[in-house]
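Appendix B. Worked example

We walk through a single record from start to finish. Start with the input: the chain for Signal recognition particle receptor FtsY, Bradyrhizobium lablabi, length 299.
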Amino acid sequence: WRRLSSGLKRTSSSLGTAVADLVTKRKLDRAMLEDIEDVLLRADLGTEVAARISAAVGHGRYDKAISADDVKSVVATEVETVLAPVAKPLEIDGAQKPFVILVVGVNGSGKTTTIGKLAAKFSGEGRKVMLAAGDTFRAAAIEQLKIWGERTKSPVIAGAQGSDSASLAFNAITAAREQKLDVLLIDTAGRLQNKAELMNELEKVVRVIKKVDASAPHAVLLVLDATVGQNALSQVEAFHRTAGVTGLVMTKLDGTARGGILVALAEKHKLPVHFIGVGEGIDDLAPFTALDFAKAIAG
Ligand code: GDP
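Next comes the structure step. The output line below is what the pipeline stores for this chain.
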């Protein structure tokens, strides 16, 4: 909780300060509600949620004095209501050997780092983990994944830069199966020559994975960078269409005042949110819980 609230400090303090500035020595009126709605929009909560919160703040309070804490408590309640249905842990089905997790997202969103953090978490739980360096487009991505492999003592399956990522995924599942490993985390490219090519490649990776195991991938995690704000919404659409996203991980919540984007995403796409990234370190991955996040955002 401490890591979460300090991670979300930039979102909560900018929202909290703005709310406190608004409500000082004023009675609640329409103009104040509009100002509150603006503050919520600036924190990237999205138009629907911002309108709903400002209506809830106004309910029964017109012409009365209102405190910043009153507003924050309504924000926390409304945000929790939106987030509660999507806050779901990532469940590893132990019957699958390996449980195959495909990790997708645009370049720089934090895929490789998240894979490293997940590998540390799963091996800490006593599971045997393998990593597949499926972002064969970037040499740096392959190197970075190998470092995470060493750090977490997990074997890494990697090919040369430019090699076929679908056959790499195929080889990785086959190897993980032979070795009876518990979890296989597959990295993917986040940028190729263009978006159509990227999506075609992802489709191919999924198709080839299914040839080895028709029930796989058992989870498709989309990693989203919170600092891109509303842009995250269209990333969800594109990746969901191509790869059938089963859950989200939102990274870099420590470096942004736009943490509210998670609320807009939950409202619009209703996809499960499993984890949030609150730093670059191996332990900076927190399970996503609605109440804690709502309290942290409201400040
Ligand atoms: P990829 O291209 O999607 O694989 O992204 P990377 O895993 O290489 O991450 C891109 C950059 O974001 C790296 O410098 C990471 O250290 C950084 N990063 C990843 N997750 C987080 C996070 O939760 N918080 C912060 N502050 N940085 C992060």
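Two observations about the output. The pocket of guanosine-5'-diphosphate is lined by residues 105, 107-113, 141, 144, 190, 251-252, 254-255, 277-280, 284 (CB under 6 Å). The mean pLDDT is 92.
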